[in-house]
């Protein structure tokens, strides 16, 4: 099993106000050129907690300073991986949206679209 090429996925996670979010990877295997970017806030204007490629997130636990996390996953046109399964603490809300690029953008993309 693996994810598809040319995808962008946005994940928005929220917990109760006043709480932080612990996040760690149970599995994490990305192909060449693909990455997961984690923001410490409710959108992609927040501070970046980390950008993870390959198996780089394995063994790490990240802790947010607020009760929101925003994650962006990007896969380019070739070389897929198995993807990832993340564990979060205390989640009360989560949402995800993915789309396939209609036109393949140059990698790396100039910017992310928002949904
Ligand atoms: Ca790739």
From TrEMBL:
It comes from the Eukaryota. Residues 1-91 form the CUB domain. InterPro entries: CUB_dom (IPR000859), Sperma_CUB_dom_sf (IPR035914). Keywords: Disulfide bond, Repeat. Pfam families: CUB. PANTHER family: OVOCHYMASE-RELATED. This is CUB domain-containing protein. It comes from Albula goreensis. The lineage of its organism: Eukaryota, Metazoa, Chordata, Craniata, Vertebrata.
């Amino acid at each position: 099993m693996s994810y598809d090429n040319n995808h962008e996925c946005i994940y928005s996670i929220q917990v109760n106000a006043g709480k932080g979010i612990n996040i760690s990877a149970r599995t994490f295997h990305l192909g060449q050129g693909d990455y997961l970017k984690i923001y410490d806030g409710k959108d992609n204007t927040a501070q970046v907690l980390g950008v993870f490629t390959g198996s780089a997130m394995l063994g790490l636990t990240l802790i947010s300073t607020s009760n929101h996390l925003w994650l962006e996953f990007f896969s380019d046109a070739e070389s897929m991986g198995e993807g990832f399964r993340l564990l979060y603490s205390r989640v009360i809300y989560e949402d995800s949206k993915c789309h396939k690029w209609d036109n393949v953008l140059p990698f790396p993309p100039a910017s992310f679209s928002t949904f």
